[in-house]
Amino acid sequence: MASASRIVVPISGQSSDAFTVELACLLAKQDRSSIEPIYVIEVSRDLPIDAELQEEIDRGEDLLADAEKQIRAAGIPCETSLLQARDVGAAIVDEAMQAGADTIVMGLTYKKRFGEYEIGPCASYVLKNAPCRVVVMRQPQTL
Predict the structure, then answer these.
(1) Tens of pLDDT along 29-60?
(2) Which of 5, 72, 91, 141 could form a Cys-Cys staple with 85, CB 3.0–4.6 A?
């Protein structure tokens, strides 16, 4: 496996976040990487991009603090980022490019739409546009 200097891990408040961070920690230990957990606040088009959405900011800070605690407990360097953007997928790809990330590790929920599994627009965008490897961890299907 190629050496990665930085792993970007989008955090969203899904139940898969802890497992996604754990997977990123395993990769980081193997590759001697640092991890950058990010939380992206999606700002609707009727608001300015820098709108102060305090409830979302607080939620993001709490989720990032949990991820940082888990990463630091594993002995891995960590720097968190709280972002605001119009599109979450584009923000993830942009942050990975700016950070010089070699890997993005994403968690997905199992979603069905019209009886079929659907990956969703955010993950689809990241998979199509990321300049680095993307590792996707999907939650198991719940019955």
Answers:
(1) 998 999 999 999 999 999 999 999 999 999 99
(2) 91
Residues 50/84, Cβ–Cβ less than 8 Å: yes
Domain locations in the chain as residue ranges:
6-138
Element of type H or E holding 108: strand 103-108
Burial tier of 127 (Cβ tally within 10 Å: 0-12, 13-18, 19+): middle
Q: What is the CATH number of domain 6-138?
A: 3.40.50.620
- C-alpha dihedral sign at 67, 121, 124, 128: negative
Structure tokens at 91: 């923000």
Which backbone phi and psi does 49 adopt, to 5 degrees? -60, -30
State the pTM of this model. 0.89
pLDDT in tens, 73-116: 999 999 999 999 999 999 999 999 999 999 999 998 776 666 67
Cα 25 from Cα 56, distance rounded (Å): 26
CB 102 within 8 A of CB 6: yes
Q: Which of 103, 106, 142, 97 is nearest to 124 (CA)?
A: 106
